[in-house]
Amino acid sequence: MIARVTIFHVKPEKVEEAIKLYETSVIPDAKKQNGFAGGYLLTDRASGRGMSLTFWQTQEDVTASEENLHYQQQLLKFLEMFASPPIKEQYAISLEF
Known about the structure:
Elements lengths: L1 E9 L4 H17 L4 E9 L4 E8 L2 H9 L2 H7 L5 E11 L5
Antiparallel strand pairs: 1-3, 1-4, 2-3
């Protein structure tokens, strides 16, 4: 399993709006992607910093979600809310407990 981590910083006054958008748009769209296995949205409401963790069955599933522009389309939804560009990282899940 693969975890894609997107580290972000949204404008503090936009945090609640960003959370709602993630809930009502990003999550339903992610569930339509092949190999999507779940995720978490972590936020510090005071600073606007946070991270999105999404879990994928295989590396091919992660790659497909980027090649079909799904990932990029999700980021565009937050463009006016970002205080700085997001950072994308990927990790193999080595242990689950």
